[in-house]
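Look over both lines:
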Amino acid sequence: MSTVLEETLFTINGNHYSHRELNTMYDFFTQTQWDVIDQALDCYAQSKPYEGAEEDTHQVRDVMYELLRAAY
């Protein structure tokens, strides 16, 4: 008799990912590179290149943090 283990899926941006997939995406960048991305989002939002840029960068950051929290 075999036991099937159910894999936990995480939903990010309306898509379902396994823990392993999220770890792979997280590993695309080093922690220093993630920090640079985060700081670049701040600079971009503060430059206000268009109306709504702050909200758009906030949404990007939310998704990025969802990935970071779910990985490992």
Observations:
- Residues 29 and 37 are 10 Å apart (CA to CA).
